[in-house]
Design a protein that fits this description.
With about 200 residues, this protein is mainly alpha-helical. The protein has one domain. Helices cover about 65% and strands about 0% of the residues. The protein has ten helices and two strands, in the order H-H-H-H-E-E-H-H-H-H-H-H. The protein has a two-stranded antiparallel sheet. It is globular, with a radius of gyration of 17 Å. The mean pLDDT is about 95.
Length: about 200
């Protein structure tokens, strides 16, 4: 997707508006995931659920299966993820095509893997597949969609204007200094959508 002036303006506005509550919980989650104690897992699950808006929209049995997969790193291999395996496990459990939550699950372990949500899809002009499409075709779409997000973010990050914005953003917190460019762009895209900075 071509980077337009209106995108640059919106990202600059987003960087100015973004606050600690937008990214500090994520940085905390990245530290907490290293602690495998029962107490840490309970705190992680609670913070993740609040930060990514799982409550009160998902059922307890979905959350149980979701965090079982997250903590066991099922489908996570090195710097990649088997989205098909993860999504099939959830769908077979009767939990539907929860692609956005799965992208967040993977991102906790593989930061270079982008997050997908309504704000990202609006930016790229994408829509979720129709509900009647079979699961394998939905997964094929989702994997292509994530590749497009990643390539778009990485390409835009090479632009001097976006690079400058990202550098300003990283200066807000030392924890952001080590974040992958894909995750930094995730934060900004979310803020653009959340604040309707592109006037959609």
């Amino acid at each position: 997707m071509e980077l337009e002036k209106r995108h640059v303006v919106a990202f600059a506005q987003a960087e100015n508006l973004i606050c600690h509550c937008d990214y500090c919980p994520y940085l905390e989650l990245k530290e907490m995931i290293q602690d495998e104690s029962g107490e840490a897992r309970v705190k992680f699950r609670s913070l993740f659920s609040r930060y990514y808006g799982m409550d009160p929209f998902v059922k307890p049995d979905f959350k149980d299966k979701f965090f079982e997969i997250l903590f066991s790193r099922t489908g996570i291999d090195g710097n990649g993820a088997d989205y098909s395996k993860i999504l099939h496990l959830l769908v077979e459990g009767g939990h539907g095509f929860q692609a956005s939550f799965v992208s967040k699950l993977v991102n906790i372990h593989v930061e270079s893997s982008p997050i997908d949500d309504v704000h990202v899809r609006d930016l790229l002009g994408e829509k979720l597949p129709y509900t009647y499409i079979n699961i394998d075709n939905k997964i094929d779409w989702f994997e292509r969609h994530l590749r497009e997000i990643k390539s778009t973010y990485e390409e835009w990050g090479k632009d001097k204007r976006i690079f400058t914005i990202l550098e300003r953003f990283k200066s807000k917190d030392k924890g952001l200094q080590s974040c992958h460019i894909v995750r930094l762009m995730d934060f900004l895209v979310w803020k653009v959508g959340n604040q309707n900075l592109l006037g959609r």
